[in-house]
């Protein structure tokens, strides 16, 4: 059924947003809207310009008989910077201060509005990196990993601290946990969850001593795979030496005063790597 151009543009935009990282041929749109490829090409030029100007993402054009267009949902540097400012404003409240100097984040990772922005911002940092899977540890990191994986269009895997019969055979490691590195804990992953030789992005909600991130890195090595990056939402104050160094963090807790119930949060090293 032939459609009006205005209707075609709306439907085409929706289709692109719902199929990130998917190569879509002009023939598909041409047949769907009963329009000439030249008209579809003109429409896509409008969409591409709008996406770029509004910071919605990048619309790549691949020439040739097997080419087409591909939507990359990448945030630009200015939008990510504004998002981090909004996140700091949301978190800089004494009501979020927890015992031990931790910051309450559960409502953020449970709120679709914030979760989408967090996932898209983190994914934007790795759009030009080959990523096969996003990894996190069970509990609060799961919705973050799911959101990041959606925008990268890759699977996400969940590391657990206890195996279940439904997971089949697992691979487990012992790692040092706790801010004082005084505990030995175990984490494991189903052998079917991650292919050998994968390139893995690790994400989590919080880092203090770095034991959990370090443990996941060791687990990735056991699968003969490679960690291409590790990113957390917030980095807490830590006086000792963390067990992991190569990671990025959206935010950094600069100071906490439990007596005055005050907290000071700033942008983390994630901002330094923005292009």
What does this structure look like?
Pfam families: Pribosyltran, PuR_N. Residues 114-254 form the Phosphoribosyltransferase domain. Belongs to the purine/pyrimidine phosphoribosyltransferase family. PurR subfamily. α2 (26-33) crosses α3. The strands form 3 sheets. The chain has a 6-stranded mixed β-sheet with strand order 4-3-7-8-9-10, sandwiched between helices. A two-stranded antiparallel sheet has the order 1-2. It has 2 domains: 5-72, Winged helix-like DNA-binding domain superfamily/Winged helix DNA-binding domain (Arc Repressor Mutant, subunit A, Orthogonal Bundle), CATH 1.10.10; 77-273, Rossmann fold (3-Layer(aba) Sandwich). It has 7 helices and 10 strands. With 275 residues, the chain is of the alpha/beta class.
Brief summary of the model shown:
With 275 residues, the chain is an alpha/beta fold. It is built from seven helices and ten strands.
Q: Determine Rg (CA atoms, Å).
A: 21 Å
Q: What would the principal axes of the Cα set say about the shape?
A: globular
Give the CA-CA distance, first to last residue: 43 Å
Helix content: 25-40%
Structural class: alpha/beta
The CATH class of the largest domain: Alpha Beta
Q: What is the CATH-assigned architecture of the largest domain?
A: 3-Layer(aba) Sandwich
Are there runs of 5+ residues with pLDDT below 50, and where? Answer: none
- Describe the largest sheet: 6 strands, mixed
């Amino acid at each position: 059924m032939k459609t009006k151009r205005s209707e075609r543009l709306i439907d085409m935009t929706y289709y692109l947003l719902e199929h990130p990282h998917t190569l879509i041929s002009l023939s598909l749109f041409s047949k769907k809207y009963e329009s000439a490829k030249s008209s579809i090409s003109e429409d896509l030029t409008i969409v591409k310009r709008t996406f770029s100007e509004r910071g919605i993402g990048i619309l790549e054009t691949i020439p040739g008989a097997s080419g087409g267009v591909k939507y990359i949902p990448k945030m630009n540097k200015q939008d990510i910077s504004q998002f981090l400012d909004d996140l700091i404003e949301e978190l800089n409240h004494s009501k979020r201060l927890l015992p031990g100097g931790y910051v309450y984040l559960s409502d953020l990772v449970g709120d679709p509005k914030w979760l989408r922005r967090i996932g898209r911002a983190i994914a934007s940092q790795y759009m030009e990196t080959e990523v096969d899977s996003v990894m996190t540890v069970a509990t609060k990191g799961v919705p973050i990993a799911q959101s990041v994986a959606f925008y990268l269009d890759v699977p996400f895997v969940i590391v657990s601290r206890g195996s279940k019969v439904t997971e089949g055979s697992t691979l487990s490691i012992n790692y040092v946990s706790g801010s004082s590195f005084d505990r030995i804990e175990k984490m494991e992953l189903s052998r079917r969850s991650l292919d050998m030789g994968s390139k893995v992005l690790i994400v989590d909600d919080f880092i203090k001593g770095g034991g959990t991130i370090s443990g996941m890195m060791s687990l990735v090595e056991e699968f003969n795979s490679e960690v291409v990056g590790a990113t957390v939402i917030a980095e807490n104050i830590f006086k000792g030496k963390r067990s992991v160094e190569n990671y990025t963090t959206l935010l950094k807790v600069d100071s906490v005063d439990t007596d005055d119930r005050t907290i000071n949060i700033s942008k983390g090293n994630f901002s330094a790597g923005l292009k």
